[in-house]
Structure formats: structure tokens, C-alpha cells
Amino acid sequence: MKPPKVILIGIGVLALAIITGMLWRSASENPGSTPASRQSTAATSHSPGDPNTPPASKKLDQSTSSQSPVSVPPPPSKPRGPIEHTTAGKKPYDTGIKNDPRVSHTNDGKHVFNESIAIARQLHAPNTEPEEDVSRLNDIVTFYRTLLKQNPEAGDNQSIVAALTGENEKNIVVFPPDHPALNGNGQLLDRWQTPYFFHALSGNEMEIFSAGPDQIMGTNDDIAFTDRDHSDFLQGLTEEPDPGFDE
Amino acid sequence: MKKSPKKFEIHTPTKIDRRSFLTRSGTAGLGISGLAATLANMKLVSEATASSSGMDMSKYKALICFFLGGGCDMNNGLIPIGNHPQRASYDNDRGFAAIPEADISTAGTELNVTDVNGTAPPGGGNVYGLHPELQNLASRFNSGQAAFIANCGTLAVPLAEGISLEDYQAAIKPIQLFSHSDQVNEWFSSIPQNPFISGWAGRIAQLFQTAPYANAPASINEHSLSSMLMTAAGSTDLLVAPGGAIPQYAVNRTGAINFAGYGSDYANALSGGQYDTGATGDRFRAFEGTVNYTHDHILEQGFNGIVKSARENEATIGAATGVADAITTPSANYDPQDRQLDDIFLTVYNTRTSSNVTDTTGLPNDMEELLMICKLIAGRECLGNTHQVFFFNLGGFDNHANLLAAQAPLLEQVDMMIEAFIQCMDAIDAAQANFDKNMATLFEASDFNRTWTPNTSGTDHAWGTHTFCVGGAVEDAIGAGTPKKIHGRFPVLEVDGPNDVPGNNNRGRWIPQISTDQYYARLASWFGVASADMETIFPNLANGFTDPLTHPDLNFLPLS
Prior knowledge:
The complex is a heterodimer of chains A (247) and B (560).
Chain A: H1 5-29, E1 39-42, H2 87-90, H3 93-96, E2 103-105, E3 111-113, H4 114-121, H5 130-148, H6 157-164, E4 172-173, E5 197-202, E6 205-210, E7 223-226, H7 230-234
Parallel strand pairs in A: 3-4
Antiparallel strand pairs in A: 1-7, 2-3, 5-6, 6-7
Chain B: E1 3-4, H1 18-26, H2 35-38, H3 42-52, E2 61-68, E3 78-80, H4 87-94, H5 101-107, E4 110-111, E5 115-116, E6 128-130, H6 135-142, E7 146-153, H7 165-170, H8 180-189, H9 200-209, E8 229-231, E9 249-250, E10 270-271, E11 274-275, H10 279-291, E12 294-295, H11 298-325, H12 340-353, H13 365-378, H14 380-383, E13 387-394, H15 403-431, E14 440-446, E15 465-471, H16 472-478, E16 485-488, E17 514-515, H17 516-527, H18 534-537
């Protein structure tokens, strides 16, 4: 005997509500997000929250610098949703920022994006992995890019940080200017007190590097947020023209 | 779908007479297939194209772009030495990234510069040198055969030395300074304040496309048999014509790019000028037969056109390289076939690297690409263009890490390539009566220069850079024995100095004092673009830049 139609409808509605609830919870737990296509890589794993963790790997010397560090799977933290689920992703700045409760406004005319600031506050948190740092920074740069339609137009750490902290054409703040990882020169330092390196591949593609525990860029303990093989960076390669054929 | 089969002829081109070659070459889509693999007598083809097609190759000009991918650190390319007032700051500021003077002295790469920024060099005497690996280039410079153009880069409007921060911030500047792909595109478009639409060489090609070019004294590319825009390094934005109106043609290290699956030069599909009787031959016959159908659907027909065009270009490329290979070396060194251009490259490479490579396939890929370009210049009559642009590149210069170790072998390769190119042009000049080495000019470009001050092991993205240019025409403009000038405007090498980008985070990013428009306009004028059309190709020249055709520091090439 078939169950009454109304019971079937009721079960369906209940299942839908449960699924919706699960999705909402997942999104609310992870306001910052990482596009799944990009991963942070590092040659070694670093002890969470321990800035003094010694390098567990040898430096690359000149002759072996083309070696690529081993890809590390995403950190075993909470799952993260896509950037589209964030304020910046859902609602472009120019259509809703003025009265958006998720945006704070300062007396000097800055517009502070609270979600991005929250991500920034988690940078270098004791219970997180170093690989998460470059991933979080990518989230913040992605916020910036979503709001201003391009990466910060700068070639060095200080200038990029200045842009992220509000020195941009729309006075948008996506990184807190009082963050403890900033030094007196306005540089954003990694866990080992070396300035992060922001590598502008294009106006919408930014690689982010930490020099790692040995504090030297170009060695295999670097921590990179990049789509590319790290060996490309070490070899000085950028995007080659597409040959368009198989030689 | 309705398809109208077209009569498809299997050629028997074991011997091609002049008439049949010209007919096939000049008529698109009439089945030049099979020609590339079976051109047994390249000289016959050359004679055919040269003597009967009406081309005036006495006005031939080739412009070759050598792109150093990644942003070459030219602060270590053109270096202050001796009594140069900024040598001390070079050592202090660059630290581990500085090239020791002793290395320059040992390599003999000091430059005999007598004129920089319109006056005698600061400090007097030899106060400039090249990277120790640029030995041949230094020698060519001192012989008046190479020119350096200092502090050149992307600009929308002139930005004066010592510009204030306020004026700098207010000025129109290139989009996404310091980003690789944007700056590469902007070097190619030379309209850096706008999104990329076309490359400047592509725009010139479009200008020349309407033959005869109205503002030229001689006809240009009226009898073209192939694309004016050729690349040996894959597709490039430099050669993108507006609207894609003119296709760029890619060659590889061995010449024409064959369709895959039929063996090298279709050896598995063709035999004695006929389709092979095996399965591969049948498949190739079917493939070409399909291509020769006409289609009602515009996209299908367009696809067929591309395939046909590629097959036709294969024929012309094959013929051109055949002409080049027929230039015999006076004294055979490596190649049993006495190919002089091959031997030049092998000799330059083996001498410099103490190697014993006996076949060009043993050369670095990028050197082989340049060799192919040299061959296409030698076989220019087969291509049918009086004016030709070539592109090739060498990557690996994005040296944020391990700068000194990484850059040296790259610059060594650059040096070998430049030397081999110059020697090849000399060889073609000697072998072919209607070629003069001043018909080919090679110019260098790169994403950007790098920061004057290093990071922990390399240097980072910057802006204005030093470029160079070689060729017989450069020699004509400079002249051996005359005072040697560094063209352009050499910057004051000081962090937070008058040439540094103003702001708080100074690292020695030189604001260009010569725009890419000015650099390229000089090249374009030599190439045949009339002054009346210069702002069509380089619209930013109207924004207040000094006229590059009269600029006293840009006379590194004659005007057309």
C-alpha cells in the first residue's frame, strides 16, 4: 500500500529543510574561503602556531633549486566555502555597501569589510598551520580584487599592504592596519618575521610566498600559494607563450 | 549536411616547374598539399619565385623581436664601473646581487662609451660595462654594431625625472605596473593605459595589408605568399592585428609545423610525391580530400581555410629553409651537408661552451628557433614578403631567487644568439647578391627591469629597463670608429633619486624616460612606416613625447 501523498510531501519538505540547514551552517562557519583550484604548497609541514619550528628540510642549493616542493593537501581545518558565499561575492560594493551592515565606516572615510578583517585576524593564529596563512592572504587579496576589480597595483609588500589597508581608490579596508604581523615599515611579516612576497602574475592573479623557516626565498621550505609548480618560480619562469603545437 | 566535393588532384611534384609552383603558391586552396614533403629542388623553387612573381626584394626588411621573458634584470646588464659616480651605490645597494668589477674586467666587457645623455660620461673614461657573459655583445658595441637604449619602458604620458609624488599619483600610468602578463601585453600593444586589443607589429601589418601601402616609396608585400607575422615561439600578442585580421604563422625549431600522425615531413604518408599505399597514406589522402570539400557552414569552411593555409605555409616554409640550407659553408665544420647557417650556430655554441655538438638538434631550443628565423630571412623570396616581422623569446628571467646563478647562463645564451645572428646576416649578405645585412634588425624587449635593491636572494619587478638592438642598419646609423653613445636616457642610479618611483617604499624602480612608443617608432620608421602614420600605430606619441624621429638620443637606426 502506498503512503498517503501528504506524508510524502511532508518528508520531502523535511529533507529539504535539513539540507538547507547543513549548507547554511557550513557557510556561516567559513566566511573566508578559498577557490578550490588553488592550493598552498610547502616542502615540509610546520608545527602549528610555532614560529620557531626549525626547518625540517634542507635548503635548495643552486644546483638543485629546480626541485619542486611536495604539494601539501589542504590543512585539516574546517571546510571552507567558495568566495561567492561571502559578502564580497554576493553583493558587489557599488550596489550595496552604503547601508550594508557588514561594512563599517570610519571617520576618515574608510569602508571596512568586516568579513575580510575577520579572516585577517585569524592570520598566524596558534591553532592554524603556516600553509593556512598564505591561503588566508589569498582570501583577503581575493576580497580586494572582487571589490576593486583588480589586484593591488603595486610591486612590493608595503605598497600592497597599504592598498589592502585602505590606500586605494575606493577607500576599502580588507586588512586591519593594526594587525600584529605588520612591522614598523608597514610590511606584513610571516611567522618567521620575514616579509611575505606578493608575486603579481597578472592583474587578477597573485602568488603569495612565505620564505619559510629558513627565512630565505627560493629554498624548498618556502610556502607558496600558487597554481603553478613551485619549480617554475625557482627557475625564474613565468607564463611562456603558448606554443600551440606539439614539438 | 550538404557538401560539395571538389575535384582533388594528387600532385606528382617530383619536379616542380616555375609555372606550377607560382600557380599553387598564389592561389589559395587549390591543393598545394604534398608540396612541402617533396620539394626536391629548392633552388628551382627559389628561382621561380624570385624571377617571375614581380616582387621587388631590394627593399626587403626584417624586424626581429627577441623577448626576454620574466623581466630581465638589466641593472646587471648595463653596469656602472670605474669612476662612475654610482658605482659605489651599485655595490652598496645591490650587495650580493652586484657584479664585481673584476669579473667585468676579466671578461673584457667594458664599453667604450663616449656619449651618454648627450654629454661625456660622468667620471670620464670607461665607466660602463656589460655583464661578464655578454662578451660578444660588448665587442659588437665597441665596434659600432650594437646599440643600447637606456631606461625604456611602458608609458602613457611622459613622466619627468624628479616628478613629485602628487603629480605621479595624478598621472595616467600603465595598467598594473609590476605585473608580468599586463606588462608583457603592454610592451606588445604599446598602449599601456588600455586593455589589450592589438600588438603594434600587428597594426603595422594591417597598415601594410592594403597594398600598395600608400605612404611607402615602394610596394610592400604586394606579392605575399605567407603571413608577414611569424613567430618561432608560439603565438604572441605582439603579432595580433586589430580584429585578428592578419594571422600570425608559427614555425618551430625545424621549420614548418606538420600535421601530427603522418611522420616527420609526412614521411609515413607520402612517397615519391604520391600518397603512400599504406593505411597512413590512405588516411592522409582522406584527410586532404576532406579539407578540399567546400562547406555551407561558415565555421566548417573557416576551419578548412585554416588547414589549407597551414598546408600552403608548410610548402613555403619548406622552400625557404631549403634555400637557406643551400648556402654552403666555406669550410665545413660540423654538418656533412655544408650548411653555413647551421655551422655558424654550432661554432658559436661550441666555442663558447667548450662543447662538441655536431648537429643543430643538440643546440638549446631557443637557439634553434633563432636559427630558423635566420633561415627564413635567407629564404625570404619563397615567403614573398618584402617586409617581415619575426618573434622569438627566451624565458627564465623572473629571478626573485638565485639571481646571479640563474641569470648568468641565460645571458650567456643571449650573447651566443646575438653573435650567431650577426654572423648569419653577414653570411647571407656574402652569399646572396640581393641581400644586405642592413635589411635585418633585431631588437630586444622584456617585461620590465628589476628592482635596484635586491630581496634576500634575487630582485623583484620594476619598470624602466635598458634594451639593445643589433643589425647592419644599426651599424649604418652608428658607424664604426665614431663616438659610442648609450642611447636613451641613462638613469641616476639612486634609491629615492630623481628616476625612482616616488613614494615611501623606494627600491630603485626607474621611471622610463624613453617610452616604448619612442623606441618602437624608430624601429617602425626604419621598417617603412611613414611619419604620417606613426601616431596611427603608436597613438600615445600624441601625448607630449619628444618626436622619436628627431630625438637626439634615439638615432640608433636610420629613418626610412
